[in-house]
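Below is a filled-in request sheet from our internal design queue. Each sheet records the structural input a requester submitted and the sequence that came back. We keep these sheets so that new team members can see what a complete request looks like end to end.

REQUESTER: design group, bay 2
PRIORITY: normal
MODE: inverse folding
CHAIN LENGTH: 472
BACKBONE (tokenized):
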């Protein structure tokens, strides 16, 4: 079976969030299970691309509206990736230094999708399945079935994987002229509430769609930024498959990015060594519980009340608690966090931005990770944390609900709260502090956490089973 994963992110080439980690791991584990899986993504002016060799395997061109665009397809077969990687470069669109944040993002992703289809059509490439990841490539299922130039490709099966339904790629219909030619009477498959909506189009036109956890699949029928009725209507072809993590990258027993390696047997001493080094490097105390937040400063992540939570906690508690925050995003949220940092330093340390090595160090050093999300399709941070014996304090939503079991339940290993309030979050942190004071109990849940298996093998097989269903 030949499967192409189509995405605008893939670790380690270009990473903004969890999408990159998934696309950088899933095809590798599918290949280990006997599937010929590869990744196709845009070319970016990134260090990984600059420092590795690529060969040109195809060139071509097409019209996007009245503009003629040339593209080049590069191939990279690197053993450390574990899969074949193809990059599509289009001067002026797919040759930039960042993944997102441009005014013409929608035109950029249109060009990527058009170039991809033109390439596989003219070079007689016929995968069995195209696994499209998120709205950036959400027009592929529609164009395969209805594009005038792509009728030869219509038998290819498509799986559309939703990593975050909050982002749907809305476009004004004035940009419809940029689309490849299609059966115009099918325009309704592109439209949602008067706009072109790539995510809704993908859900309607794909052969099946998946979400990155079962919990999130159930939530989409209640909260999906206006697409709730669509997910009810299309539920017959939906599947929930929880993400995994790559233990070759996220493993404290062999992680080259952490100060001191450890395993479940040596977790106590190992975390202590990492914690002491980490806290010294970041100017905070290693006494007491170290709580970390890693993620985007975004409304859906609950980051907008993070400063208020910390202010409330420190104003009303004398407990030993040190906070480390690693993230970036909304400027007003960042300012609030900077204000609370100024107020309570050195109890709080902050790094604005994203640093992969620092994230690994934080997971290895921290006792607890906080994820107060409003929306969390799967969440990978809690899975990384568990692998490092770092206990999650999470809101019971989406994939967090699927992967974290509260300590109040049999074999529990985390602290789960349900109400999105400052009081609920503070109470959950207090519960973690109380548990942490019981050294024997804390040792039990850290070892339990490290014993859990959230590796990609199981999830990769579920994707393969789904592909086989589509081909039958």
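RETURNED SEQUENCE:
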């Amino acid at each position: 079976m030949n499967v192409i994963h189509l995405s605008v992110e893939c670790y380690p080439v270009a990473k903004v969030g969890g999408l990159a980690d998934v696309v950088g791991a899933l095809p590798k584990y599918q290949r280990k299970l006997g599937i010929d899986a590869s990744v196709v993504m845009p070319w970016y002016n990134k260090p990984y691309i600059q420092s590795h060799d690529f060969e040109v395997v195809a060139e071509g061109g097409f019209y996007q509206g009245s503009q003629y665009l040339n593209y080049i397809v590069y191939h990279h077969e690197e053993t450390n990736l574990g899969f074949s990687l193809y990059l599509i470069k289009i001067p002026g669109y797919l040759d930039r230094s960042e993944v997102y944040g441009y005014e013409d993002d929608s035109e950029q992703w249109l060009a990527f999708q058009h170039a991809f289809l033109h390439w596989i059509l003219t070079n007689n490439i016929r995968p069995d399945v195209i696994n499209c990841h998120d709205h950036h490539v959400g027009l592929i299922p529609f164009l395969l079935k209805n594009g005038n130039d792509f009728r030869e490709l219509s038998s290819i099966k498509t799986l559309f994987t939703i990593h975050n339904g909050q982002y749907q790629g809305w476009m004004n219909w004035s940009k419809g002229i940029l689309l490849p030619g299609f059966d115009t009477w099918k325009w309704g498959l592109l439209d949602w509430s008067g706009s072109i909506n790539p995510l809704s189009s993908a859900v309607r036109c794909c052969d099946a769609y998946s979400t990155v956890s079962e919990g999130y699949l159930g939530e989409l029928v209640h909260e999906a930024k206006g697409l709730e009725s669509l997910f009810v209507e299309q539920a017959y072809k939906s599947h929930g498959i929880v993400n995994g993590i790559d233990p070759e990258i996220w493993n404290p027993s062999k992680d080259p990015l952490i100060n001191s390696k450890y395993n479940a047997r040596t977790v106590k001493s190992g975390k202590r060594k990492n914690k002491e080094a980490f806290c010294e490097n970041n100017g905070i105390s290693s006494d007491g519980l170290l709580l970390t937040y890693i993620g985007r400063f975004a409304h859906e992540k609950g980051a907008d009340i993070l400063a208020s939570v910390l202010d409330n906690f420190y104003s009303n508690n004398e407990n030993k608690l040190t906070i480390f925050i690693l993230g970036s995003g909304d400027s007003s949220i960042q300012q609030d966090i900077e204000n609370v940092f100024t107020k309570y330093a050195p109890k709080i340390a902050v790094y604005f931005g994203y640093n992969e090595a620092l994230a690994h160090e934080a997971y290895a050093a921290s006792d607890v990770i906080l994820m107060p999300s409003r929306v969390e399709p799967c969440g990978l941070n809690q899975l990384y944390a568990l692998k490092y014996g770092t206990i999650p304090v999470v809101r019971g939503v989406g994939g967090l609900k699927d992967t974290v079991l509260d300590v109040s339940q049999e074999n529990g290993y985390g602290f789960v709260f349900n109400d999105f309030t400052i009081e609920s979050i503070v109470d959950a942190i207090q519960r973690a502090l109380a548990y942490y004071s019981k050294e024997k109990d804390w040792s039990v849940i850290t070892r339990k956490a490290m014993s859990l298996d959230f590796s990609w093998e199981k999830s990769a097989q579920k994707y393969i089973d789904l592909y086989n269903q589509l081909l039958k």
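SHEET NOTES:
- The chain has 16 helices and 17 strands.
- Residues 44 and 95 are 5 Å apart (CA to CA).
FILED BY: M.R.
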